[in-house]
Each structure stands twice: as structure tokens, then as C-alpha cells.
Write a structure and sequence with these properties.
The complex is a heterodimer. By secondary structure, chain A is α+β, with helices and mostly antiparallel strands. Chain A has two domains: 172 residues, D-Maltodextrin-Binding Protein, domain 2, CATH 3.40.190.10; 204 residues, Periplasmic binding protein-like II (D-Maltodextrin-Binding Protein, domain 2), CATH 3.40.190. Chain A is built from 19 helices and ten strands. In chain A, strands 1, 4, 9 and 10 form a four-stranded mixed beta sheet that branches. In chain A, a hairpin with a 2-residue loop joins strand 2 and strand 3. The longest helix of chain A is centred in the middle third of the chain and has 25 residues. Chain A is globular and about 60 Å long. Chain B is an alpha+beta fold. In chain B, 51% of the residues lie in helices and 9% in strands. Chain B contains 13 helices and eight strands. In chain B, the strands form two sheets. In chain B, strands 1-2-8-5-6 form a five-stranded antiparallel beta sheet, with no helix packed on it. In chain B, strands 3-4-7 form a three-stranded mixed beta sheet, with no helix packed on it. In chain B, strand 1 and strand 2 form a beta hairpin. The chains are: A alpha+beta, B alpha+beta. Chains A and B meet through helix 6, helix 7, helix 17 and helix 18 of A and helix 11 of B.
Chain lengths: 392, 427
């Protein structure tokens, strides 16, 4: 879970909770494999009161095993007041409210190098996919490679696909594909991959061409776009790009690095999101009070003011965010209403959506290498998906 | 005399219990587990084995394992032998041995990270490509304008092999505007001046310029103020597939051919030599080279091990035999080939077999060095075992089947090794 700066900010939220309730809270970060760490604790009979989970699938799994306790009436009241239906339902399972989404991620952002845009004479942020491709062409013509793609990490490619697909095929199809109710050989997938191929297939638009992109890990895809001279004008990924920019480059977010929402491929811009959900593992007074507090606007405001945080709480005044960039990201997230969707590959079985060198990661890397072969990519994706979902 | 039976059993008990719990039971359980499905509840017979021998990914792993076993121990042993023999008689041999042996002190994980860097594509980071690119650039000259290209709707069209050719024949008296884009302004040569339209003379003339000025603006395909010429650009006039005349652009991008030097049907072409991309080096971790590259890192680690063992064996070789051979008129190569190597054979076999067992279960180097896109091309059985069982697949049935297969592959080598040790014990 959260470490470093994030932990510091969250501790401030906890301090406020302690001040209000007089309770004492201990925060234990679990590292990357939260579900393993928690599973061990629960099976050992010593669960914490409240835990944060990053994957929807893990929450469902825990709920199914009966490890989770409902949030209680007060938290539900807070949720109804402050949260949209989409976020409430994400925290529910089997008709019961188990979770409070405290921290959200917006994975539908294009970050750009303002100097590169200036050199290219681009003044308007593109709103549609067509404008986006034109902008990319202009940036490329100006001598800066247009789009940095971190293709060595498969998950950035799944995020590319998810954004195009959500915007083009719509939320319903997205849910069906996420649950593998429709096959990857579906015409809607073909259309999305063809659209993606309009970018991936142009050597001029992708920094380093496909082979260069396949050797670029996500952190490098960000740092090269904000290096001097820039090796790319734009880079796609979630709000966490800001952290990489701050850590690995000299660029300043808000001045040298700005952001616009992922262009609309269909009618609307997509919002693909992630988030950390707080759940109660014990049926205790303290756990319920904590969830109620986390669902409140006050708790969200404390972290929002620290920065590096986007809240799904729609009652939070966006004035609380410390800078324009974060505010824009948060506004885009709230504006999506209930049409935002959770990261598809995070919902899929890990063998398909989360394994280096296999499943969707590998197939989309192959597609990046050879964007003309849409049908072949679809067949390979479907074969892997059928195996992983076990419902061929 | 004879020890009382019960006492013997009592003393053997701890060892038997430990071996049973830590070796025999896991092997037995793996065998049983390999006959069940992913969940471990349903009996599938040999289904998992069928999957192992039909899944294309696993077949690649089997093939790669064969390559590893054939190549890595051989190369490491051969290198170790060469090092051992060569360093035997020089005074700083020990220092040399120390250096060659040093990689053994590093964990596989650290070695993997080191070689991930060594094989990095960017010559500024990866030393392998730094060497390759350095050598290449010493012999081949870099072009002045890598990456420059015409606009898709411009006068010039790509004509294969990286050259750009004008769509229609050049007319004397109407200067050609050959617009290029895609170059950072900072990369232009220092002597580049603002582009100018070529004067309309008797011969064919024109301008090659960067049709993009910082900040944008200006009309595509038109020489606007502030846009720079591209000096030193080679321009060819081509007629009937042959180059009939050549010109080079001036500081403002203009060029001209002498009147009458170009036939009426000649078209202008900017040859590929203007645009050759900088040599990117070898794609070490690409699909074809990834396994040899990783084997290279393995040899780097283990050649020292082979060398030390062989050097120890060499010390035990009786000097008088070598002297006798020399006195009999054998040259050094014959001494090495006919005396040293046969005498060293037992040591060489030990080293070879040890490395073979070691290589069969190779995992760490591949898991760390192979990047995501080519991990499947570098796959080996031990890695596939991990991936199938825990790395997302969560199919411990197939994982156990692979484990059993690995065991079967190691067994003959083990058997051979045990028999050899026994025979030696008897001697």
C-alpha cells in the first residue's frame, strides 16, 4: 500500500480521525502483494480493523469468503451523500456495501511537453482522436517525435486499448468484454485495434518507432518526454505520471508538463480509473467509524490539500486541490459521472491481464510490433482469454 | 561384531526423516499433483503432460533448454580449460584467475541486472552496443539529416530504400520546392541560413529546406521567411532509372544544375545517404539474439568456476609426463591435445556434468534479463514452471508436470554422476 509521501499524507488523515474520535490508529503498509499479506493475517485470526485493497477482484474474492463486514449505516449515509452511484456500486458485492473508495486514479490522461507543443505551434489541446492524430503529426513534423509509448511494460498498452475501447464501443460493451461475455474476436475489438493501429502503425508518430517503444519501460517513456531535448512530445498514462515527472526529470508539472483528457474516439472522452477501496475486516465500532470518516468530505479534503491525490468524492470542492493539473484530473473524473470504468486488465484473471510476457500484455506488444495484423491479434487475445477465464 | 540393528535405525532416523520430509515427499507429491487439474481437485490423468507437449510456449521452453544444455556447459568448460592452461605458467596467473573467478561471487540476480544494462539498446547506456556502434561509426559516415522526411501531401514521395523522389519531372526555369519536415531545428548544421527560392536560370534549380519554423505558422510547401535551408544535401537528377547529374545544396538550401545537363524527363531525387538513420547497434535482447545473449552472461559467470577446478586438476598432472612428451619431440599443441587433456578428462567431466545440472534448472538470469516482449522467446523450463504455477497462470498441475519433466531430464545426468563418484571411490 502507500509508502513514502503517500504514507505521510495519509497519516495526516489518520491524525484528524484520532483527534475527532479519540481512537488510536496504527498504519501498516503491506507492500505490493496486499492480498497475500492480508490473507495470511486473516487466516491467522488476527485481521486488522480496516484494510485498503487496490483490485476489484480481490475485494470480491474477500467478500465471497465472508471476510468482509458491511460498512454500517452511517458510512452508507455518507456514501449516498458524497459518492456517485458508480463508485458506490464498485464498493458493493452481492447487494451489500462493503467498501469505501477513498483514493481514485484517473488513467485517461495525455501528458505533454509544453515546450515541444510551443515549438510545433500547437495551441489547442486535441479533443478528438482525429485531432489527436493531427496534433501528433504536427509535433512530429516539427522534429520532436510525437508520442512516447512505454511498450516494454505490457500494462501501458492494455490501458491504451481500454481507453480507445471504452470511448468507441461504450461502457456496456466494455463491461461485457471485461467479463469475457463477448469474445475478443468481436467486431468492436477489431474497430478499436484498427483505431489504435492508426497511431501505432505510423513510425513518425511513435517515438523510436514500434521497436523503440517495445524497449521503453513506463518510467523511461515519461522521462524521455520531459528530457532536454525531448524525445517525445506526449506521453499517455494515469495521474501517477506526475510522480515520475517530479522524481526523474527537471520538468515542473503545471509549467513544463501539462495534461489533457484522453481524446474522444467515439462520442465522449473515456475515463478509465483505478482506486483504493477501504473495507472493514472486523465488525467493530472503530472500523465503522473509520469508514464513515473516510467517506466524508473532510477526510478527502485533508489529503487533497497535500497533493498527489484524487478523490472520487463528488461533494469535495475542487478548490481544495493544490494545483490546476490535479484539479483538472479530478474534475475529469467527477465529470464522467457513472460512465467511468475500472481498468479492464485489473478485472481480468492475472494470467490474462497481469503477467509479464503473457496474455493481453504480450499480445498487445505483438500488435504494437505488427499493427496491420488486427485479426491475428484478436485471435491470439481470444485464445489466451478463453484459457484464463476458463469459459472458452 | 555388527551393530545392533535397532541402534542403527535409531541413528539413521534423523537423516531419514529429514530426507523423507524434504526430498522424497515433495517429489512424490509433485508426481501426484501433476495428475490433477489447476484447482487440485479433479483427476486429469496425463492431461497436464499432454498440455506440456502441445502448448507452443512450453515447446519453445523445451527447445531453449536443449540449446542451453548443448551450448552453455561446453563453452564454459572450454573457456575454463583455455584460461587454466594459459595462466598456469605466467607469473600473474593468480591475479588473472582471481578476476575471472570474481563473477562467481555475485548472485545470479545481480548478474542479471548487470547484463540487463550491458545489453541495453541505447549505446549511451549499454556497453555492448556502445562498442558495436563505436566500431560501426568508425567505418561508416553518419548522414547529416537522419529522420527528415517530406510531408505526406508534398511534392516528394518516398521511392524505396529511404530516398525521396519528386512526383513530376523538373523543368528548367521553374525552381523546384523540395520541402522536408521532421527535423528538430536544434539539429541543423551551424551554417544553415534562411531558405531562399532558387533563381530561375537556364538549368534545373530548386530549394531543399526545412518547411517548419519553431512555433509553427507558414504555409506548407512554400518557402516562408524564418524557415531554414538544408545545406550539404545531395540532389540527384534521375532519368530512366539512372543518375544523370548531381548537385549539392548551398547554405540557403538552393541548388542548380548546369543548363542542358538534365534530360527533359529527369526527376529530382534526394538519395537515402542524406537520411540514413543513426546506426542503432545490435538488438541483443530481441527475439533472435535473446537466448545467445543470456548464455553469454551465464558463461561470464561460470567460466571462472570451470577454470578454478580445471586449474586444480592441472596442478595434479605429473610434470614428468609432459616433459617426457616434449623430450620425445612433441610440440606444445600435441602436448596439450595428447597428454594434458586426456589426463584432465576426469576433471573436465566433473565440471561439465556439474554445469549441465546447473544449466538444466537455469531460471534467474532469464527471468531478469529477458524483457517482457521477448520473454516468451527466451523461455526455459524452470521459468515456465514458475510462470505456469505462480506467475499468473496459477495452474500448479501443469507446473508440477513441468517439474516432473525437469526431474526426468536431470536424472540420467545424476545417475551418471553418482556412478562415476562410486567408481572413483573404489579406485
Amino acid at each position: 500500500m502507500w509508502t513514502g509521501a503517500e504514507q505521510e499524507s495519509f497519516t495526516k488523515v489518520l491524525d484528524e480521525f484520532e483527534k475527532r474520535t479519540g481512537a488510536e490508529v496504527t498504519f501498516v503498509p503491506t507492500g505490493d502483494s496486499a492480498s497475500t499479506a492480508l490473507g495470511t493475517k486473516i487466516e491467522g485470526g488476527e485481521p486488522p480493523d480496516v484494510a485498503f485493497l487496490a483490485q476489484v477482484g480481490v475485494m470480491h474474492q474477500f467478500a465471497e469468503k465472508g471476510w468482509l463486514k458491511p460498512v454500517g449505516d452511517e458510512a452508507t449515509a455518507q456514501l449516498e451523500k458524497n459518492y456517485g452511484k458508480g463508485w458506490r456500486e464498485l464498493g458493493a458485492y452481492g447487494g451489500k456495501q462493503y467498501g469505501v473508495y477513498f483514493k481514485a486514479a484517473n488513467k485517461s490522461l495525455i501528458w505533454y511537453n509544453t515546450a515541444a507543443f510551443e515549438t510545433a505551434g500547437v495551441t489547442d489541446e486535441p479533443k478528438t482522436w482525429k485531432e489527436f492524430l493531427e496534433t501528433a503529426q504536427t509535433v512530429s513534423d516539427s522534429g520532436t517525435p510525437a508520442v512516447s509509448v512505454g511498450g516494454a511494460d505490457g500494462w501501458t498498452l492494455t490501458d491504451w486499448f481500454e481507453n480507445v475501447y471504452l470511448s468507441q464501443a461504450g461502457p456496456e460493451k466494455y463491461d461485457q468484454l471485461a467479463a469475457h461475455e463477448i469474445k475478443w474476436t468481436d467486431p468492436s475489438v477489431k474497430k478499436a485495434l484498427t483505431t489504435l493501429g492508426e497511431l501505432f502503425g505510423k513510425k513518425d508518430l511513435v517515438a523510436g518507432g514500434a521497436s523503440g517503444a517495445l524497449q521503453t519501460e513506463f518510467p523511461k517513456s515519461v522521462s524521455q518526454a520531459f528530457a532536454e531535448p525531448p524525445a517525445a512530445g506526449m506521453v499517455f498514462e494515469g495521474d501517477f505520471v506526475a510522480g515520475v515527472i517530479a522524481a526523474d526529470t527537471k520538468a515542473k508539472v503545471g509549467e513544463d508538463a501539462k495534461v489533457f483528457p484522453f481524446p474522444a474516439v467515439g462520442a465522449d472522452s473515456p475515463v478509465v480509473s483505478g482506486g483504493d477501496v477501504a473495507v472493514a475486516l472486523k465488525d467493530s465500532e472503530g472500523a465503522r467509524a473509520m469508514l464513515t470518516f473516510l467517506a466524508s468530505t473532510d477526510a478527502a479534503r485533508i489529503w487533497a490539500e497535500q497533493g498527489g491525490f484524487v478523490s472520487p468524492n463528488k461533494a469535495l470542492d475542487t478548490g481544495a486541490y493544490p494545483d490546476d493539473v490535479t484539479r483538472g484530473i479530478a474534475e475529469a473524473l467527477i465529470a464522467a459521472g457513472d460512465d467511468f470504468r475500472f481498468d479492464m486488465s485489473d478485472q481480468a484473471p492475472a494470467a490474462f491481464g497481469g503477467t509479464k510476457g503473457a496474455g493481453e500484455w504480450k499480445r498487445l506488444q505483438d500488435f504494437l510490433k505488427n499493427p496491420d495484423d488486427v485479426a491475428g491479434a484478436q485471435r491470439a487475445l481470444e485464445a489466451d482469454a478463453a484459457k484464463a477465464y476458463g469459459n472458452g | 561384531m555388527g551393530t545392533p540393528r535397532r541402534l542403527a535405525v535409531l541413528f539413521l532416523m534423523p537423516a531419514l526423516v529429514l530426507l523423507g520430509a524434504l526430498v522424497v515427499y515433495p517429489i512424490g507429491y509433485t508426481l501426484v499433483r501433476s495428475l490433477f487439474d489447476a484447482g487440485g481437485s479433479e483427476f486429469v490423468g496425463l492431461g497436464n503432460y499432454a498440455e506440456v507437449f502441445t502448448d507452443p510456449d512450453i515447446l519453445v521452453a523445451v527447445r531453449n533448454n536443449a540449446i542451453w544444455v548443448a551450448v552453455a556447459p561446453t563453452v564454459a568448460t572450454a573457456l575454463g580449460l583455455v584460461f587454466a592452461v594459459l595462466t598456469e605458467r605466467i607469473s600473474w596467473g593468480t591475479a588473472f584467475k582471481l578476476v575471472v573467478f570474481m563473477p562467481m561471487a555475485i548472485s545470479m540476480l545481480a548478474a542479471g541486472i548487470i547484463f540487463r544494462l550491458v545489453y541495453e539498446q541505447d549505446p549511451d547506456k549499454g556497453i555492448a552496443n556502445a562498442v558495436v556502434v563505436g566500431v560501426h561509426d568508425t567505418f561508416a559516415e553518419a548522414s547529416a539529416y537522419p529522420g527528415a522526411r517530406p510531408r505526406p501531401d508534398g511534392v516528394l514521395k518516398p521511392s524505396g530504400d529511404g530516398a525521396f523522389t519528386a512526383a513530376s519531372p523538373a523543368r528548367p526555369g521553374s525552381p523546384a520546392d523540395l520541402a522536408l519536415v521532421g527535423l528538430p531545428a536544434a539539429q541543423l548544421p551551424e551554417d544553415a541560413r534562411d531558405a531562399a527560392r532558387a533563381p530561375a536560370g537556364d538549368g534545373v534549380s530548386g530549394t531543399v529546406w526545412l518547411d517548419f519554423k519553431p512555433g509553427g505558422g507558414g504555409e506548407p510547401g512554400v518557402v516562408d521567411p524564418g524557415e531554414k535551408g538544408l545545406p550539404g544535401m545531395k540532389v540527384e537528377a534521375v532519368s530512366g532509372g539512372k543518375v544523370v547529374a548531381e548537385a549539392t545544396t548551398a547554405a540557403d538550401g538552393t541548388f542548380s544544375f548546369p543548363a542542358g545537363s538534365t534530360p527533359r524527363d529527369a526527376v529530382l531525387r534526394l538519395p537515402a545517404s542524406n537520411f540514413t538513420e543513426q546506426y542503432a547497434g545490435v538488438d541483443w535482447l530481441g527475439p533472435t539474439l535473446v537466448t545467445p545473449s543470456i548464455i553469454g552472461s551465464y558463461v561470464w559467470m561460470w567460466a571462472g568456476f570451470a577454470m578454478v577446478l580445471i586449474a586444480a586438476g592441472l596442478a595434479g598432472v605429473p610434470r614428468e609426463l609432459l616433459e617426457a612428451a616434449r623430450v620425445d619431440g612433441a610440440n606444445e599443441w600435441q602436448v596439450f591435445r595428447r597428454v594434458t587433456v586426456p589426463l584432465l578428462a576426469p576433471v573436465l567431466v566433473v565440471v561439465f556434468v556439474t554445469l549441465m545440472i546447473n544449466v538444466l534448472k537455469i531460471f534467474d538470469l532469464i527471468y531478469i534479463i529477458a524483457p517482457g516482449p521477448t520473454q516468451a522467446d527466451a523461455n526455459v523450463l524452470a521459468l515456465q514452471l514458475y510462470l505456469s504455477s505462480f506467475g499468473g497462470g496459477n495452474d500448479q498441475g501443469v507446473g508440477s508436470a513441468i517439474g516432473t519433466l525437469l526431474l526426468l531430464l536431470v536424472l540420467p545426468v545424476m545417475f551418471f554422476n553418482v556412478r562415476r563418484i562410486r567408481r572413483e571411490g573404489r579406485r
